[in-house]
């Protein structure tokens, strides 16, 4: 079974995070929610409290195939303030391990120079942070180890791209059909 992790910081975009969690878990992908602080309780950008499955200090990064970053404000800068997460993103990129980000979160990858020469998308207005990327404004872009999504309105497409990457197209199509989402 595939395993990934989605990282939550106060101010994360609720739908972007929980849609990914829901659709991945429907696909049988093990996907813990991980707080980037020392407490499991995380508050979304619209004041929805969520209890993460674990805190970042307890995650075995060697056990996951993908790091997933939801957007949101101030969630994205709060993710950037987590030194351990930033270190692990660099390590994943250097090892050609999967990295996915939606909405404002692709700016994290862009500011690190990881999207240079890559096709990517993000929330309109954030593209200035995607240094050297081929910004499309598309719903979802997949380029090598990277999956980027435009925003909350594309959360289903983003989540299904992750499902397809980790569990295959047939499973992604099955999940989409099960939730009546037309791909």
Short note summarizing the structure:
The protein is α/β, with parallel strands linked by helices and 183 residues long. The chain has helices spanning 14-26, 75-80, 83-94, 106-111, 155-167, 169-178; strands at 4-8, 33-35, 41-43, 49-51, 54-55, 66-69, 98-102, 119-120, 134-135, 140-143, 146-149. The longest helix has 13 residues, at 14-26.
Please give a handful of descriptors for the protein shown.
single chain; 183 residues; alpha/beta; Rossmann fold; 7-stranded mixed beta sheet; two-stranded antiparallel sheet; globular
Blueprint of the fold:
Elements: E1 4-8, H1 14-26, E2 33-35, E3 41-43, E4 49-51, E5 54-55, E6 66-69, H2 75-80, H3 83-94, E7 98-102, H4 106-111, E8 119-120, E9 134-135, E10 140-143, E11 146-149, H5 155-167, H6 169-178
Parallel strand pairs: 1-2, 1-6, 2-5, 6-7, 7-11, 8-9
Antiparallel strand pairs: 3-4, 10-11
